[in-house]
Amino acid sequence: xxxxxxxxxxxxxxxxxxxxxxxxxxxxxxxxxxxxxxxTRRMYGQMVVHFGHVLAGSExxxxxxxxxxxxxxxxxxxxxxxxxxxxPPGRRYSYAGRALxxxxxxxxxxxxLAPQALGCIPxxxxxxxxxxxxxxxxxxxxxxxxxxxRGFVRDFLVHRSLEIEPEALVRLSAKELFTFARQRGARxxxxxxxxxxxxxxxxxxxxxxxxxxxxxxxxxxxLRRRYQLSDVPCALGWEEVxxxxxxxxxxxxxxxxxxxxxxxxxxYGLRTCxxxxxxxxxxxxxxxxxxxxxxxxxxxRRLPLTRPVGEALLEYLRHERPAxxxxxxxxxxxxxQGPLRNKFYHWVARCFLKAGVPAPHRGxxxxxxxxxxxxxxxxxxxxxxxxxLGHRNPETTFIYTKLQVDDLRQVAIEPEVMx
Length: 419
What we know:
By secondary structure, this protein is mainly alpha-helical.
């Protein structure tokens, strides 16, 4: 290694003489590329050196001999009793496992170790992947829908444990299949239950297409009836929406990012998946336009870039967004600082609480409903609202007319007329 390896006092010059010292230095370089802070890089590197020191105390071990069993033995037998670190045993075990996990991944990337052993792949993986490929390529379902169905079918296969061969699965009775669905869907709503049913029906339909005679199970699970336009969306008054936006601490951790995302949801009624999918090239600063991609429908739509949203985006891009090879606008603060994957519900709910806004639902979708009702009250047409929200069916937008209470009062029939 060159002298640049010792920048900012990050490396101890004795690392080169230790077991896995060179590997620890390479690991620190790798973690720096992934965006980990200096303290974490140093701590993980020291753990790799400590791991090599413990192994060398008993017998010399080369990097090619490292595997999950060796690491688990170190974590189980040495780390809880180790006096080299002041952290509590639980925290010590946690960061030691993460450090050695990165170490193992680096060795595999470099070709020092063989790729992940096939024995670590679940035995049902081939069956599950075949079904998901059928959903994506033959039925043409959206990626999000395939992911939802994958989760339900995976839970079913894990539940069957030893009986995961197609021949054994088609021998199940309708009662056994319904028993699993009732346990798995105990806390699911109507829509989620129907997704569970459709996932399992589709799975057995796919098995039948493969020649395993599974038609007798296609009707084992009933769908729950959901009446069209039966729900009433939860929406806030426009003043309450402004209070929620004002509750975001822009100077706090991820404050500029969170404010920009929440403002986009409130201004355009975007879904959270649309906010996460926004890329740098989707912002046309010259024409003041945004290109929004909807993974749910696979379509794009162009929206005007308002001045408040543009200023919020610039504040985030200039002062808070980390340098990254990723083209997504909004990135996670945590290493490896990639695109956002988690849902927004928890921190948006905290904004609701901080603003003192009472609402039965406190997720970001409430702001989407609030915008639709606000535009309806201002006289905007249902067609215009549907185009803004990205609705393909006009009847989807029609549900917001239920929240036009003032207009509904004007057409209400007086009680004496009814009598």
